[in-house]
Prior knowledge:
Blueprint: H1 19-45, H2 49-55, H3 57-64, H4 77-103, H5 106-125, H6 130-158, H7 164-189, H8 196-202, H9 205-217, H10 222-227, H11 231-242, H12 248-262, H13 267-271, H14 277-292, H15 295-308, H16 313-338, H17 343-368, H18 377-395, H19 398-409, H20 412-444, H21 447-466, H22 478-483, H23 490-493, H24 500-506
Helix pairs in contact: 1-6, 1-7, 1-9, 1-15, 2-3, 4-5, 4-6, 4-20, 5-6, 5-8, 5-9, 6-7, 6-19, 6-20, 7-8, 7-16, 7-19, 14-19, 14-20, 14-21, 15-16, 15-20, 16-18, 17-18, 17-21, 19-20
Bound molecules: beta-D-glucopyranose.
Amino acid sequence: MAVVVSNANAPAFEAKMTVYVFICVIIAAVGGLIFGYDIGISGGVTAMDDFLKEFFPAVWERKRHVHENNYCKYDNQFLQLFTSSLYLAALVASFIASAVCSKLGRKPTMQFASIFFLIGVGLAAGAVNLVMLIFGRLFLGFGVGFGNQAVPLFLSEIAPAQLRGGLNIVFQLMVTIGILIANIVNYFTAEVHPHGWRIALGGAAIPAVILLFGSLLIIETPTSLIERNKNEEGKEALRKIRGVDDINDEYESIVHACDIARQVKDPYRKLLKPASRPPLVIGMLLQFFQQFTGINAIMFYAPVLFQTVGFGSNAALLSAVVTGTINVLSTFVGIYLVDRTGRRFLLLQSSVHMLICHLIIGSILAKDLGVTGTLGKAQALVVVIFVCVYVMGFAWSWGPLGWLIPSETFPLETRSAGFAVAVSCNMFFTFVIAQAFLSMLCGMRYGIFFFFAGWIIVMGLFALFFIPETKGIAIDDMRESVWKPHWFWKRYMLAEDDHPDVEKRSA
Ligand code: BGC
């Protein structure tokens, strides 16, 4: 059974990597930085006593009873709601953002994101009660929904095909930098009493302002302009970002994609048609799998997790800084390899890699960490090392590819809608993990690592058989070069009446 797809017949359009594209990529990716900052900041803030005393006094009381069950110190639905409310809001927002993205463009969608971020930061950092705090998180969530919808699409559309993977992963790189900055901020503000947590939550204002002003400088994508009938502007934009004179072939291919897209009045209905199934199923499952690698159990709750296995409060935050650094550095490996070895290699390699880490961590905790005891120094160190090795594998594979693949595999007519479904699935599963992790940790204890290990086996097999290689293929050519030749997905491509060209002919 041939599961690898040949890319030989993919058209390559002429393009240079221009300084202008580079600047646009960096500015847009600041959206990712804010997302990462939000992910990273929650774990540290919820480990700060001042914060707990003010908003979650019951958790604080419980935490002080040191001899309590190791795995259950923090299990509190409201505390989890603090972390997870953001993702619920982002879930809803990504659908609105998708409409804004199609109707107004990628650039205004990013501008809206920065405004939501600023409101959210103000409310959360200035919160005087739980309601204000949660509202702040909801606005931040709206920002994340808008940003995560627009930025990866923007990046995939302005990137030349042969560099698309690497440029798109700059989004993930910024996510990881955001997480790292948040971990460092947590580390220092934990010492600032009683308002350190306000500084921590307020820090997101800086990237939000950069995004707001930066997004005035960047270009709208040619695809989005042409999609909205601004063909001349679109052509100009394309010439500007490609840095070559002969952009006609690519321009024609975008116009063609837009012609097809225009005939689709309801992209969500179109998503339900068989021809949309391959990118839709893959886009949704990637999000489920990405979250069920267990990454956010580590990212949100690293300080809590490290405290649980016996580190002191500050040592725990410091370990989170270490994992954060590894996360950033390993993302560069992804950027370097994704357009060389391709997407599949990274997904498969890292599945084996992460599986081994989970099994080792789970076994150490099972063997050495009693319910109320602490872990010996040596074992705790081994746990931290394997958490780091695990984070490495995630950072060059399921992390970035969870965003890259859905942004590059939908045809234009369903790209924004399809990507919105993917983003909202990501938010939903992130919400599930954020909401459930502390309870799962309490109920399953070390078993949680075996739970994630089980899912990693499933996702590895899925990648092996069902995720085709998309390296180097022009974004508007996936149907011909990827889905039609694929051993499994081709069956959905054969239903010709599903193709809009045919709808037109028979109309
Ligand atoms: C995921 C986040 C995760 C982060 C870790 C992202 O791709 O979507 O949920 O926290 O990677 O670096």
